[in-house]
Batch of 2 targets.
Target 1
Amino acid sequence: MQKDNNLKEIYLAGGCFWGTEKYLDNISGIVQTDVGYANGNTEDPTYQEVCHNNTGHAETVHVIYDPKQIRLAFILTLYYDVIDPTSVNRQGGDTGAQYRTGIYYLDEVDLPIIQGSLQELQSHYEKPIAIEVQPLRNYYLAEEYHQKYLDKNPSGYCHIHREKFDQAKSAKDDVLI
């Protein structure tokens, strides 16, 4: 995709990236996604290394969105709806540091939006929110077979309930409508 200076980026780790990507792809205003490995300690890791070699990477979805169609705060609200924000290194049946939740940002102006959304989210939980928030240090594109995995494998494993995909299709950022 050609770089459009009017578009923004955010990186969201929400457990297995197959379902998280499929869910985010259904949201109007998100113009592109890809999956990869973020904020780890090794260069250009493979899926096998991320799963078995303690690379420190999180399975992450790179989200490119149009801020004229959808706000970051709304994207985060939808993201929170498909994760357990209090779980540490686990989403659904997937366990391990690569399945942690995280919000990795490029633009410092996004940080107050992220922090505000997390404060609002925390007000709904007694347990502490476990979503890490960090600047993006690194991101390596995952292997091709992981890209749009659930489109290629419609009956593939997913920790997100399928009805959430339909809900994402109809989600509208009412502030911008």
Target 2
Amino acid sequence: MFYKANEPHGLPYNPFKAIVAPRPIGWISTLDKDGVPNLAPYSFFNGVCDDPIILMFASGGMKDSALNVSHTGEFTFNYVSRFMKDAMNISSASVDPGVNEFETAGLEMVPGETVSCPRVAGVAAALECKLLQIVNPDTLEGNKAPYFIVLGQVTGIYIDDEMITPEGRFDTMKADPILRSGYHDYVCLDELFELVRPG
């Protein structure tokens, strides 16, 4: 099949998120302007580049995380391992601003080193970020898209020592990430293999 993106596709569910998958989960911690912690997972999240290290997450509307970043200029990405999937899912619930999702999900906080916002205790890794910019893209139709892209430069990196191999690599298989797919689907890794780029 083929369909134009601005026309009906005739399927019972939109396939886009299942096609662009799997995606790392951006479990983003922030502080609101009153200093109350916030924690929420974002499906549209990824690394942008590695020199300097820049991350992005996209918020559908100006949700609490993006709003908090706009006020404080900081956020932290927390790595989601399989054993944390239930806590991550709990933190995805729509709640009133000012609710501390660390508490609702039964999670402990660890203070940030280069940012004020905390990270999730027990994660395999966390990346502390300072805001570069928030982009509200223009569409081809000349309207503003209903998403805000938050770009942050990494200022601090936490790695659980248990996740570093004897060769000095981050052990992705041991970190056991869960990844977002389409619909209500998530996937886990069952194999890791290496391919060396030609030349």
